[in-house]
Every structure is written in C-alpha cells, then in structure tokens.
Design goal:
By secondary structure, this protein is α+β, with helices and mostly antiparallel strands. It contains five helices and five strands.
C-alpha cells in the first residue's frame, strides 16, 4: 500500500493529525470491504502496540472517519464512515450483515433504515440494525 493523497486528504478533512500508524490504519480501512475489530488490526500491525491501535480507532471514531458496529459479538467492529459524518454526528444509518459462519460483518450501505417515529418523547442517538445469516461467500462454499 502506498502513501497517497486520498489518505492525507481524508485525515486532513477530519482534522486528524497525520502520523505513520494513522496513515497505515486508514490505508487498511480503504482496502477492506468489511468491518473489522481491534484484534484484526493487532494481527495486521503486529509491530504496533494495542494501545496505539485502540487510540487510533478512538480518534477515527470521534472525528467521524469510522463508525463503530455492535454486531452482537463480544468485540466492536469498525468501518469507514460516509463523507458526511463528522465529530458531532455520524450519519451512517444503514444496516449491517453479520455472517454466522465466517464471523465477518459487512455494511449494507445501499439499504436505508427507515426513520422511526415514536409516540412518546424520546431522544434517539443511534439506530442499529444487525441482520444475521450466511454471507454470499460462505453460501458458495457450502
């Protein structure tokens, strides 16, 4: 993976200080079409310590570069945000698919979660929809 202008542009647009590990982690996000957790980053970047990787994910989440996905497993997953997300609001309102065979989580960006109207006065901060089943890759293997 090469250091490129897309990586620096994305980091700069979110006011994230550019460091070597942040460049590498963002390049990894850009090369994936699925969500992944801290343990995946630890495997990929074995030369870095867990704390640095965790702080990188935390910064990326706080600045609206990635969103956290709670797919019902014991660890959070992360995926790139839409360009409209920022530090005040994540606008990634889409379902996620969790494959119970390969344990991978995928954003379903083309599917929208309908706006939910509640008949009481609630303040909604987030909406999550996890669809579980077997992904297309695992279905081909079976």
């Amino acid at each position: 993976m090469l250091y490129n202008t897309e990586v620096t542009s994305r980091l700069n647009s979110k006011n994230i200080q550019i460091t070597a590990i942040r460049i590498l982690v963002l390049q990894f996000f850009l090369s994936q079409n699925k969500a992944f957790g801290l343990h995946n980053l630890e495997e990929r970047f074995h030369f870095s310590d867990r704390t640095t990787l965790y702080r990188t994910l935390k910064t990326f989440t706080e600045k609206g570069l990635v969103h956290q996905i709670n797919d019902g497993t014991s660890s959070a997953k992360y995926a790139l945000c839409d360009h409209t997300c920022n530090s005040q609001k994540h606008s990634d309102i889409h379902p996620h698919f969790y494959c119970e065979q390969c344990n991978e989580t995928t954003c379903l960006n083309s599917v929208s979660i309908p706006e939910i109207e509640l008949n009481r006065v609630f303040t909604i901060y987030t909406t999550e929809l996890i669809i579980k089943g077997v992904c297309d890759v695992c279905n081909k293997v079976a």
